[in-house]
Amino acid sequence: MSATLNAAVATAPAPAACAEPLAVLGRDVTVPLVTGGEVTYAALDYAASAPALQRVWDDVAAYAPYYGSVHRGAGYLSQLSTDLFEQSRATVAAFLDCRPTDQVVFTRSTTDSLNLLAAALPAGCQVFVFETEHHASLLPWTDAQVTYLDAPRTPDEAVALLERALSDRDPYGPALVCVTGASNVTGELWPVKELAAAAHAHGARIVLDAAQLAPHHPVSVRDLDVDWVAFSGHKLYAPFGSGVLAGRADWLQQADPYLAGGGASRKVSRREDGGVDVEWHTTAARHEAGSPNVIGVHSIASACRALTEAGFENLVAREQHLIAKVRAGLAEVPAVRVLSLFGDDAPRVGVISFVVDGWNSSHFATALSAEYGIGVRDGLFCAHPLVRTLLGSEPQAQGECGAPEAAPGERSLNAIRVSFGAGTPDEHVDRFVGAVRELVADGAKWQYRTEEGRCVPLR
Ligand SMILES: Cc1ncc(COP(=O)(O)O)c(C=O)c1O
After folding, report:
1. Residue 162 — φ and ψ, nearest 5°?
2. Residue 348 Cα, ligand 1 centroid: separation in angstroms?
3. Contact 366, 170 (CB under 8 A)
4. Residue 266, Cβ neighbours under 10 Å: how many?
5. Phi-psi bin for 446: left (phi > 0), alpha (psi -120 to 50), beta?
6. Which of 1, 101, 178, 398 could serve as a FRET partner for 369 with CA atoms 20 to 30 Å apart?
7. What average pLDDT does this structure show over 104-131?
8. Are 170 and 144 in contact (CB under 8 A)?
9. With a 6 A CB cut-off, is 212 part of the ligand 1 pocket?
10. Helix runs in 142-182, H state only
11. Can you tell me the distance from the alpha carbon of 450 to that of 440, in angstroms, rounded to the nearest whole number?
12. pLDDT for 33-80, tens place per residue?
């Protein structure tokens, strides 16, 4: 790696209150370079999965010896685990600033949460969703009448497009708007509060996909006035297999249980005709059948506490400092085009996608990994319509979330995404910007070939 690499980006120092990243697992992991030697791994793919906070890991480790069944054991550890599980619900409700009547349902992920809500829609529900959404928000509404809204080019246009679509709808039927808080492609913040106001003005409800927002910004259900919010533990520094759907209880209480089984049922009895009668819970347990993932849930609550105690004001300030560094660094490389829907001045989180003229994105991302020890993502990021709109490209034959086949050096049909957060040290983004500059100026130092649509180093 060149000696000038780390000094490549000159920016203002991070504000003193947030000069240090939060401690995360993996910060000392070293990875081999194809060119020889090892470097500490620069995890810059937080938007896919963020590393566990050390604090979360410590909390999980402290609890692990006391692990026991939840809601089904008389023993001390079962009681303790049940208490922990239910306390975690309260912690998440506080983290999201929920209304007292809201339910917090523990799921596996954002995808799971949105599929749960989709399964709980009242009959005849209309759904409104922007084409720019992640597939987790775009696709679960298979049983509803869905209106897909075009990609807006400003936040105001987003509100106007929604207003227009909602004013054409049947005003008496149920309706749901699904919108992301922060784009997993551009990192740009969406005007959630304004969209919620528009939805409610037209008698519709709104669910916020906070998968990319909650790890970076405080989310207040009350202030945003959203009806539900969904997020994933593994993007919130708690990668133990749990997610959250929080919000209004009524649709969830009226719906069939998401999964049928123990835990969701209060009373089950044989009928005289030989069948079975079931009384389902009306609490969150209705949609949490089976043995709950208490470790996953505990880890989410731990992350909520850790982020709250670190202070979002500090975390946001530090992240904005990193965003400014990366954007300034990329802006100095003319071959780089950063993808944006709402423009340079849009408020954003630490998620930045870009293409590099003359480079296949898979080739570029692979070289960042193989030659610099930097982990980013390339592809269409499970938001195919949005990335294609931003790239101005046509659909290609490709696997879900995969990269289209293209040889190294060909013009790319997909993009590269760098993403970071509370655990990212300055050195990682400095190394990234320096590596981009060096790759564009000097080319890759190694040879690569395409294997099943991906570039891999020649060995
Ligand atoms: C905006 C957004 N929504 C939903 C999801 C789906 O999250 P998960 O894969 O944890 O279900 C993602 C994942 O990348 C995302 O970025």
Report:
1. -70, -45
2. 17
3. no
4. 13
5. beta
6. 398
7. 98
8. no
9. yes
10. 155-167
11. 20
12. 999 999 999 999 999 999 999 999 999 999 999 999 998 888 999 999
Is the pLDDT at 403 greater than 70, yes or no?
A: no
Mean pLDDT (the chain, rounded): 92
- Whether the pLDDT of residue 315 is over 60: the answer is yes
Instruction: Note the pLDDT tens digit of each residue in 122-148.
Output: 999 999 999 999 999 999 999 999 999
Q: Is 242 in the pocket of ligand 1 (CB under 6 A)?
A: no
Q: Which two three-digit tokens encode residue 347?
A: 């408020």
CA atoms within 13 A on the CB side of 87: 11
d(CA 430, CA 91): 36
pLDDT score for 404: 45
Residue bearing the CA closest to ligand 1, atom 16: 184
Pairing of strands 205-209, 126-130: unpaired
DSSP element (H, E) containing 145: strand 145-149
270-284: pLDDT as tens digits: 999 999 999 999 999
The tens digit of pLDDT for each residue in 326-378 reads 999 999 999 999 999 999 999 999 999 999 998 889 999 999 999 999 999 99
With tokens 């630490």, the residue in question is 350
DSSP string, 75-100: SHHHHHHHHHHHHHHHHHHHHTT--T
Is any atom of ligand 1 closer than 6 Å to the C-beta of 232?
A: yes
DSSP H helices, 343-446, are: 361-372, 384-391, 426-442
Q: Is the beta carbon of 417 within 6 A of some atom in ligand 1?
A: no
CB distance 431 to ligand 1 below 6 Å: no
- The residue type found at 248 is R
Distance 220 CA to ligand 1 centre (A): 19
Report, as residue numbers or ranges, the catalytic residues: 382
Give the atom of ligand 1 at the shortest distance from the alpha carbon of 184: 16
Q: How big is the CA angle at 235 (ends 233 and 241), to the nearest 5 degrees?
A: 35
Residue type at 331 in one-letter notation? A
Residue 214: name the closest of 191, 239, 185, 180 by CA: 180
- Nearest-Å Rg of the Cα atoms of the chain is 23
Pairing type for strands 351-356 and 336-338 reads: antiparallel
- The string of pLDDT tens digits covering residues 251-300 is 999 999 999 999 999 999 999 999 999 999 999 999 999 999 999 999 99
Task: Give per-residue burial for 112-121: e unless 16+ CB within 10 Å, then b.
Answer: bbbbbbbbbb
Beta-carbon count within 10 A of 58 CB: 14
- Ligand 1 touching residue 388 (CB < 6 A): no
The pick from 212, 293, 299, 349 for probing ligand 1's pocket by mutation, whose C-beta has the most ligand atoms within 8 angstroms, reads 212
Q: Whose CA is nearest to atom 14 of ligand 1?
A: 48
Please choose, from the candidates 221, 166, 381, 237, the residue with its C-alpha nearest in 3D space to the C-alpha of residue 158: 166
Which DSSP state fits 65? G
